[in-house]
Amino acid sequence: MKNKAIAAVLSTLADYMELNGENPFKVNAYRKAARTVESSRVALADHRDQLEQLSGIGKGSAGVIEEIMATGSTTLLTELKEKLPSGLPDMLVIPGLGPKSIYTLYQKLEVTSIAELKQAAEEKRIQALSGFGPKKEQKILEGIAQFKNRPNRRLLNEAMTVAEAMRAELESNQQITAVQLAGSLRRSKETIKDIDFVTATTSPQAIADWITTLPLVVEVVNHGDTKVSVVVSVNGIEMGVDIRLVRPEQFASALHHFTGSKEHNVRIRQRAKSMGYKVSEYGIDGEDQAEMKTFGSEEAFFKMLDLPYIPPELREDRGEIEAAEKKKLPHLIEQAEIRGDIHMHTVYSDGNDSVMDMARAALAKGYEYIAITDHSRSLRVASGLSIDELKEQWEEIDRVNEALEGITVLKGTEMDILPDGSLDFPDEILKELDVVIASIHSGFKQDEETMTKRIIEAIQNPYVHIFAHPTGRLVLKRDPYHVNVEKLFEAAQSTGTILELNANPRRLDLNDEALKRAKEEYGLKFTINTDAHITDGLAYMRYGIATARRGWLQKEDVINTYTLTQLRKVLKQKQK
């Protein structure tokens, strides 16, 4: 069991203990143990006999950690879950409301759910409690509204998890001759409301009946012979899934129809009309045709309209029709063209695996190089490295490079841009690094002028190669900070700074629209990185590639498609 997973259980245990009003010293002991475990640079599972030697780990917490490693949980937490009202922990999702406050509300007002919390606040009963007051009561109401108003959408990776499980079920039925994702998920939009499939079958009614019996299906919304709508649950993720049932000869036309955005499809129909055709999900009809024309592939469908194949990610009516007409569609970047990942974290800061673990995982993916970029010293919440710790890591990287063949590990850092625009490490340290990434992790509420000036000052440093997750957003969770994007792009252009497309599905930053604009209007270069904190996190590259394709990026636009020699040359150019 990984350190981060152990720490998560310990933190949850501390929350539940505080919800139960237990001794603050005992609660804090488990919180301290969680921090110690998460920041430890050795895997606790491999050093069980040394637990009590770690700062903040006593005999009691060591025993709990042993139990967590053996079972994945602890009886202390199980007992608390059984003891506390089931709706009490749900209130932890309300912004600004911690377990201590929830305990007080439970004891004083018998509040046991978000609904009861809202009622108490609306009746102004909370402000009378010691330590609360009218302002905090209002913030609680705002927090509940913020939680309730979250979009009913899922991250791209969550939707893909559900879709891949459902697709496997559909492909298992021999009466279905073809299955393909459609809709916004096939276009790789960053958030997904519903999942769409197009299936080809000669037995639509039988397939429709069979779909409703699948073990993944938790609710049947619509049951027809051309469309089945269900709610599917996979690993606790519930999503609506629409399955279109068409005859095999209609498959390509239906796939096109149910893939493109509404705007793209309007443009296709307009083009068809100008050529004397009529397009539907079943094929293309025309005055001079005896019957509707159907197709064996989407390529053949587009050819009928005198267009080259338009990749699904581009079907948004953002210039793809015009580019296709001129035969100037980009050759979009492909995952096989990625040679390395140059933003990731290890146990030295807030990662879960060692330098060697990350290198081996990257080697298994066929990468030529990676960069280890643990956090800098000011980001204490992520156990940022001091200069001495950074130099210690350099020595470990040297050892890994000596031990492993076929991959090169570059020395890097993800360095904080401090609120005043200064950098977290001095130039004499930065010039020793292969890859320097600058990023914002604090002061998100600065005004646009201050934030823009802060970022530009940082990327003007000759040793800063990359500006990471440039707008600071978290998809469905946090809006971008205020920054003048034009000035940011201009500064990147004038300094030769590379902008990152962070492939973590929670970030996807820069987003597709910004990528397209930065490329076409400013000629900028990019890097697609996973920001992985665990070996499994390297798999996020697929979502970065999908977003890059939506942003019209090609291989030559992305520096980690370059060979190691080419990459080093590009990074050195910043210092000239």
Topology of this protein?
Blueprint: H1 3-19, H2 24-39, H3 59-71, H4 75-83, H5 99-109, H6 114-122, H7 134-148, E1 154-155, H8 156-171, E2 176-182, H9 183-186, E3 191-192, E4 194-201, H10 204-211, E5 217-223, E6 227-234, E7 237-246, H11 251-259, H12 262-274, E8 277-280, E9 283-286, H13 298-304, H14 320-325, E10 340-341, H15 355-364, E11 369-372, H16 387-403, E12 408-416, H17 427-430, E13 435-439, H18 448-459, E14 466-467, H19 485-495, E15 498-502, H20 512-522, E16 526-529, H21 541-550, H22 564-573
Protein name: DNA polymerase beta
Domain DNA-directed DNA polymerase X: 1-316
Domain Helix-hairpin-helix DNA-binding motif class: 49-68, 89-108, 124-143
Tell me what you see in this structure.
It is found in: Cytoplasm. One of its GO terms (biological process) is DNA repair. Its cofactor is Mg(2+). With about 575 residues, the chain is of the alpha/beta class. It has 4 domains: about 5-150, Orthogonal Bundle (DNA polymerase, domain 1); about 150-160 and about 180-245, Beta Polymerase, domain 2 (2-Layer Sandwich), CATH 3.30.460; about 250-330, Beta Polymerase, domain 3 (2-Layer Sandwich); about 335-575, Metal-dependent hydrolases (TIM Barrel, Alpha-Beta Barrel), CATH 3.20.20. Helix content is about 40%, strand content about 15%. It contains 22 helices and 16 strands. The strands form 4 sheets. The chain has a 7-stranded parallel β-sheet with strand order 10-11-12-13-14-15-16. The protein is globular. The chain starts with a helix and ends with a helix. About 45% of the residues are buried. The model has no long low-confidence stretch (mean pLDDT about 95).
